[in-house]
Backbone:
């Protein structure tokens, strides 16, 4: 069966092993992993960034996190009886995987807001929380959103690992394909995973533009224009 | 450039032969990456060396790679499993859809295997009593609570409470697994959880109660170590999977056959379980485990 025939076979679009169910599982795993990662990393990064403390922690958690092999973590988590094999182990492993980019980007974004801007906000009578929420977060938003976007796309693409510990998701096709020596199934699973990751990338880059404050967007454009004007030949 | 390659090739082959001259032709024993076949290959090697035959072990991947290498004489010996090998040869000779000839009757299956192997330049020595079959295991607790000792018991039990089954992802489509359980034992399967072939995932799934029944290997060291009970295959779903040495026919000598036969005769399934446990659970080296066993059986003192 060719890959095209596999995709057009109605049998592959229904049931618990159908494309909609497996795609939904992949999204579910990714959603919960990201939710846990955001709940843990955003408060920490926002606080540390605002206080300009913990540079060492924020950058090193990021670097160590990148060095930890997700598959190894997944296998260890699955062997802990309280967690067990299946999607929960995958969600926790992916959450650990998603924390570094979110933490590092958010911290860097907040901590690199210009001191003069903060002083100005302070001078206008803003308290710490107001400065964070009304000045620092909006200015850091492009970086924060980029961290979340990177993490989400990585998580969506990596959620296929869940199938290795008895979980669901699109990795099911790849893992089962290997077991059945069915190359069509392997390729179909790979294509679906790639498509889903790309869809996540497109959606989130759209959202990233939307959450970037107007002022920053316009400033960005103005900069581009400002650079272009001197480059244009002066009319004779 | 070509000359250099030839010179290098000549160099390395003469290096290999240096030790081989004393013991005649070297016997290369192929093994898969499963620890059980590695233990067996190490036993074959050590017992051959003890009988003055120069032998070495080469780790290849799967039967699909090893048997063709054996047929062309690239390797000369490998530990094999009766039923699986018979079906492999059967499908090579009669096509992928050939009717199954391996049965639970070891003697009949061996005759069939020898008949299939002969024209392929393969010599199959007498099978050992030791077997490594696909088996179905439940936790000791589950077996006691529901009074299960055989797969027929499981079939009866499942009429009231359909089971959850764990095994390799191909299980629902294979006779040796879910299809056979349903057809021969009338086991009602509520759901299937794709795991691995008798590996750590299946053991964990059983212990964590994610599945009631899981596919394991009868000789696996982790079965008894984890308080699992193998349900008896009382209606003969699984073909006999006795261990036997497969050899490249032109390389066979009496010394080699007798040496390998002595290993087959010494081995039982229980002992194989202990050997596997020593490697997989106690993390002893394959060679040491093989040597200890052969020494205990007096097979290294020729």
Residues:
């Amino acid at each position: 069966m060719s890959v095209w025939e596999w995709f057009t076979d109605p049998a592959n679009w229904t049931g618990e092993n159908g494309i909609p169910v497996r795609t939904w599982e992949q999204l579910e795993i990714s959603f919960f992993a990201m939710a846990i990662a955001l709940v843990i990393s955003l408060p920490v990064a926002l606080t540390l960034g605002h206080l300009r403390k913990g540079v060492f922690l924020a950058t090193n958690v990021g670097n160590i996190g990148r060095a930890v092999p997700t598959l190894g973590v997944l296998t260890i988590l699955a062997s802990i009886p309280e967690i067990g094999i299946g999607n929960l182990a995958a969600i926790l492993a992916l959450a650990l995987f998603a924390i570094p980019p979110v933490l590092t980007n958010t911290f860097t974004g907040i901590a690199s807001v210009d001191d003069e801007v903060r002083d100005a906000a302070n001078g206008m009578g803003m308290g710490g929380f107001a400065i964070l929420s009304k000045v620092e977060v909006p200015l850091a938003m492009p970086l924060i959103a980029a961290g979340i976007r990177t993490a989400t796309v990585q998580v969506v693409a990596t959620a296929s690992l869940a199938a290795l510990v008895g979980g669901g998701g699109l990795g099911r096709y790849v893992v089962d394909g290997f077991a059945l020596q069915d190359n069509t199934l392997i390729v179909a699973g790979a294509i679906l995973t790639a498509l889903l990751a790309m869809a996540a990338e497109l959606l989130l880059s759209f959202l990233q533009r939307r959450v970037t404050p107007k002022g920053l967007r316009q400033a960005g454009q103005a900069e581009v224009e400002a650079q272009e004007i001197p480059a244009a030949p002066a009319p004779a | 450039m070509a000359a250099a390659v030839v010179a290098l090739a000549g160099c390395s082959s003469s290096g290999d032969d240096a030790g081989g001259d004393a013991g005649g032709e070297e016997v290369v024993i192929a093994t898969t990456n499963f620890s059980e076949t590695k233990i067996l290959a190490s036993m074959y090697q050590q017992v051959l060396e003890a009988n003055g035959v120069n032998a070495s072990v080469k780790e290849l991947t799967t039967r699909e790679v090893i048997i063709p290498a054996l047929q062309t004489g690239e390797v000369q010996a490998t530990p094999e499993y009766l039923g699986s090998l018979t079906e492999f040869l059967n499908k090579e000779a009669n096509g992928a859809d050939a009717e199954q000839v391996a049965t639970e009757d070891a003697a009949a299956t061996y005759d069939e295997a020898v008949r299939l192997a002969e024209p392929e330049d393969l010599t199959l020595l007498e099978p050992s009593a030791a077997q490594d079959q696909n088996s179905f295991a439940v936790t000791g607790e589950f077996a006691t609570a529901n009074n299960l000792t055989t797969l027929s018991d499981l079939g009866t039990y499942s009429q009231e409470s359909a089971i959850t089954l764990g095994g390799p992802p191909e299980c629902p489509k294979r006779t040796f697994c879910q299809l056979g359980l349903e057809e021969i034992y009338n086991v009602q399967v509520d759901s299937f959880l794709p795991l691995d072939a008798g590996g750590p995932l299946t053991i964990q799934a059983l212990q964590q109660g994610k599945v009631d029944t899981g596919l394991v290997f009868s000789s696996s060291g982790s079965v008894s170590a984890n308080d699992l009970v193998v349900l008896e295959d009382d209606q003969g779903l699984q073909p006999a999977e006795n261990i036997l040495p497969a050899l490249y026919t032109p390389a066979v000598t009496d010394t080699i056959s007798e040496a390998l036969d002595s290993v087959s005769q010494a081995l039982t399934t229980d002992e194989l379980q202990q050997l596997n446990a020593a490697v997989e659970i106690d993390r002893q080296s394959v060679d040491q485990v093989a040597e200890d066993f052969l020494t205990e059986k007096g097979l290294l003192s020729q």
Remarks:
- The first helix of chain A runs from residue 3 to 8.
- Chain A touches chain B through 15 residues (CB under 8 Å).
